[in-house]
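ugh ok fine here u go
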Amino acid sequence: MPKIFLAPGSKENIQRSVKDGVSIEVINPVEPTLKSIIRVLDHPIRIWGVGDAIKDKWADVRAGDIILFYAKGSKRFTFKGDVAFTYPLDDSSEQLTEAKKISKSVWGSDEWFRLIFLSKTEEIDIPLSELNAITGYNIRGLKGFMKVTRNSEGIIKLLVIQYLRRQLLGI
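structure:
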């Protein structure tokens, strides 16, 4: 079963890099490994980044995991992303330099260079209170990237129900 991660972000950054995606020209991959693996993604490229301070949490993210994006100030998770791969694949200076360059190009700062490339994204609407009810958490406002450790199955069921509702009702 995929792991679920929660990622806070500004509405603008979620809009830019998760909803709208970023052109391959903005990312401009040069490092050979990234250049070859990025070809599997649809364009525009959907991407998220986290800082080095939470490297251990980021290192737990795998292909197929799910990230729920929390729009700061909204008390809602507004997008879901399926993880394609993370980058850098190692801490070589070549890959770190490439990741920092991409972070600066996408968000204007090289701070969020622990990158998560997404294979698919979709709009969702999950109030923070509903996630708290499903997981037993008491989060008042998501402040940092975190892995869900309680009742991931319940969240997946909620995502499936929302997806089916959108498909059946055309919303």
